[in-house]
Amino acid sequence: MSMLPPTAVFRFPWEVNSIKEGESVRTFGRLVCYQPDESKATLTAQHASKEHRVFVQTQFVEPFNPIIGAQYLVLGETEMYEGVGVMVRARVLNCVDGVNTALLQKAIAEQRSFFAERESKQGEVAQPQDVT
Amino acid sequence: MQAAAMDPADEPPSMLWGMDPIFSAFARLFVRDILQMTESVQVPGIYFYNLHPIYKVDVLGTVVYKRERDDFFCYGVDDGTGVINCLCWKSNLLKEEEDPSKSGTKHSDAAEGGFDLVAELRKLRQKQRKRCHLEIGELIRVRGPVKTSRQQREITASTYYKVDDPVMAVQIAWMMEVPQLYRLFYDKHFQLDEAGDSAETSLSKATNIIKDFLKQRLVAKFRPYDVQDLLQPLISGRLQTQSAGQEAVAGPSGCQQLNQLLKEVLQVLQDQGTVYRKVKSQDEVYHVTIQDKDLLITVKDIIREDSKREKYAEKGCHILHILSAVRQRYSLNVSKAALELVLQTLECDSDIVSTSDSHYIAF
């Protein structure tokens, strides 16, 4: 029996800190700092003239070649750490330097609005959905 | 994870599934929808999304799970909406191990500095292998039929390969494109036109009846009443279905319907160029374009004469030039569509040849 990991839903970096523990997420940011002794990497992203940080636990994806200043895509589970807050324990950490972040944001928003649209349409039809 | 089962009565009959173009395509559904599709009651192995019959899909996602056996890979693919297992069989090419001794001797035989076939084949095989061996975190594209095995949905890949996406361009394009596909196709209901006697279908049926008649009998010219009776069966059929279990409706009589239909058909045939009215007078006479020998000869003569002139000798005569000449010499009522049919006929008979899309010249 294959045990597939849960779906990693796309989140914006500024949403990560408000996610509860144990959620599988996929997010992105620019690598500003890497502490190999602690297996901790820090990604940042600009939004609404504020800099948002995402902390990443890199134990599972080491060794990786850290390119400071490059854009990275991280996929993993959220964990709460004392003093730090939310950290993403990475299962996948890919360098995607050169990515058009504005376009990526647009694509994520487009996918979300599509699902929201569909859900509201289904709600209108008012069919009882048996969600197990 | 399964959504509520669709009411079996809602399923369209399996005979009609082939009419839905999505059935024959690799549907680019979100993995979430693939996992939630209901399985058909009529034919297990076919699934339904929004009343569309689906059996093969196309996904793009990140590999988050990998299991390798001698014969196959099992990749868990996550596209951000769901994770699904993909069974990817290894092709025979990739299973062969390199035999160093064999390749060694062959290498010495190869021409020096020339095209080394063995080395090239080895490189090709390595490239193919790289495309099929994926690691966790890499992007994979999988196409294939959906199967439910051991109560888990999985895709048996008919095609799979690693996608090189260094700046996420492919993933972004996919995320933008798939909602559009949903809006335009997948979320639209599977419309089936039952064999109804809609106004459009009976018009095309009628047009074909008249066209076939004119062709078979090699009719050169006719008047409306000559072909009127051909359409009678269509009208009687229509009247019968109307009267079957319906109160009398104050509508057009059979005769009026026939006249109306005939008028529409003749208009369609004129628009297509199949027939034309050489002389527009009280007497409604229709000439069948390609049977009009005089017209054919006139057009041939025009092209032949003009091809001799220096102006047209090389490039040929443009169709609009021929059209104005025909209208001057022969009949004002020859339409461009009719002329195109004439030119096609002449070209088939090798009397003229087209030098470009709209230029013609005589031999």
Draw up the topology in text.
The complex is a heterodimer of chains A (132) and B (363).
Chain A: E1 9-10, E2 24-35, E3 40-47, E4 50-57, E5 71-81, E6 85-95, H1 101-125
Parallel strand pairs in A: 1-2, 4-6
Antiparallel strand pairs in A: 2-3, 2-5, 3-4, 5-6
Chain B: H1 31-36, E1 38-39, E2 47-49, E3 52-54, E4 56-68, E5 72-78, E6 83-89, H2 92-95, H3 100-109, H4 117-132, E7 139-149, E8 152-156, E9 159-163, H5 169-186, H6 199-216, E10 221-222, H7 224-228, H8 232-243, H9 254-272, E11 275-276, E12 286-288, H10 293-308, H11 310-313, E13 317-318, H12 319-329, H13 336-348, E14 352-354, E15 359-362
Parallel strand pairs in B: 6-8
Antiparallel strand pairs in B: 1-2, 2-3, 4-5, 4-7, 5-6, 7-8, 7-9, 10-12, 11-12, 13-15, 14-15
Subunit structure (chain B): Component of the CST complex.
Subcellular location (chain B): Chromosome, Telomere; Nucleus
InterPro entries (chain B): CST_STN1_C, CST_Stn1_wHTH1_sf, NA-bd_OB-fold, RFA2-like, Stn1, WH-like_DNA-bd_sf, WH_DNA-bd_sf
Summarize the model shown.
Chain A is of the alpha/beta class and 132 residues long. In chain A, 19% of the residues lie in helices and 39% in strands. Chain A has one helix and six strands.
Architecture overview:
Chain A is α/β, with parallel strands linked by helices and 132 residues long. Chain A has a domain at 9-97: Nucleic acid-binding proteins (OB fold (Dihydrolipoamide Acetyltransferase, E2P)). Helix content of chain A is 19%, strand content 39%. Chain A contains one helix and six strands; from the N terminus they run ββββββα. Chain A has one helix at 101-125; strands at residues 9-10, 24-35, 40-47, 50-57, 71-81, 85-95. A five-stranded mixed β-barrel of chain A has the order 2-3-4-6-5. In chain A, strand 2 and strand 3 form a beta hairpin. Chain A is globular and about 55 Å long. Chain B has 363 residues and is of the alpha+beta class. Chain B has three domains: 8-94 and 117-185, OB fold (Dihydrolipoamide Acetyltransferase, E2P) (Beta Barrel), CATH 2.40.50; 202-234 and 253-288, Arc Repressor Mutant, subunit A (Orthogonal Bundle), CATH 1.10.10.980; 292-362, Orthogonal Bundle (Arc Repressor Mutant, subunit A). Chain B is built from 13 helices and 15 strands. Chain B has helices at 31-36, 92-95, 100-109, 117-132, 169-186, 199-216, 224-228, 232-243, 254-272, 293-308, 310-313, 319-329, 336-348; strands at 38-39, 47-49, 52-54, 56-68, 72-78, 83-89, 139-149, 152-156, 159-163, 221-222, 275-276, 286-288, 317-318, 352-354, 359-362. In chain B, the strands form four sheets. In chain B, strands 4-5-6-8-7 form a five-stranded mixed barrel. In chain B, helix 6 (199-216) packs across helix 9 (254-272) and helix 10 packs across helix 12 (319-329). Chain B starts with 30 loop residues before the first helix and ends with a strand. The A-B interface holds A 1-10, 26, 61, 73, 75, 91-94, 96-100, 103-104, 106-108, 110-111, 114-115, 118, 127-132 and B 1-4, 31-32, 62, 64-65, 67, 74, 76, 78, 80-85, 136-137, 150, 152, 166-169, 171-172, 175-176, 178-179, 182-183, 187. Chain A: GO terms for molecular function: single-stranded DNA binding; telomerase inhibitor activity; telomeric DNA binding. Chain A: It comes from Poecilia formosa (Amazon molly).
